[in-house]
Amino acid sequence: DAMVIQNPRYQVTQFGKPVTLSCSQTLNHNVMYWYQQKSSQAPKLLFHYYDKDFNNEADTPDNFQSRRPNTSFCFLDIRSPGLGDAAMYLCATSRYPTDVAPQHFGDGTRLSIL
Amino acid sequence: AQSVTQLGSHVSVSEGALVLLRCNYSSSVPPYLFWYVQYPNQGLQLLLKYTTGATLVKGINGFEAEFKKSETSFHLTKPSAHMSDAAEYFCAVSALGAGNKLTFGGGTRVLVKP
Question: Residue B18 in contact with residue B24, Cβ under 8 Å?
Answer without folding.
Answer: no
